[in-house]
Amino acid sequence: MISSGVSILYSFFTNKKKVEERKKMKLSDVVKTISNTEFKPKQTYIIAEICCTDENDDDVEVPCVRYKFRDLKDLTADTWAVPIG
Predict the structure, then answer these.
(1) Could you give all domains of the chain from N- to C-terminal order, each with its CATH number?
(2) Above 70 in pLDDT, residue 63?
(3) What is the pTM for the complete model shown?
């Protein structure tokens, strides 16, 4: 299973049709679609939690994944502007 925040992105119990649709999408688009939110203008990465099992069906410890979907250098000057007043 792969989740981000409280949203489950992929799992063994997800409808196969939905999984196939999501596989064609960028991970950042899957997160936005499933969580029904937009990223903050300065947000550059997503944290994904992964739960999996081995061939004996035992849980496997997997570290969180930090997925970078946008580079800071690609952000415009307007993104960094702070309103005064």
Answers:
(1) 2-76 (3.10.290.60)
(2) yes
(3) 0.71
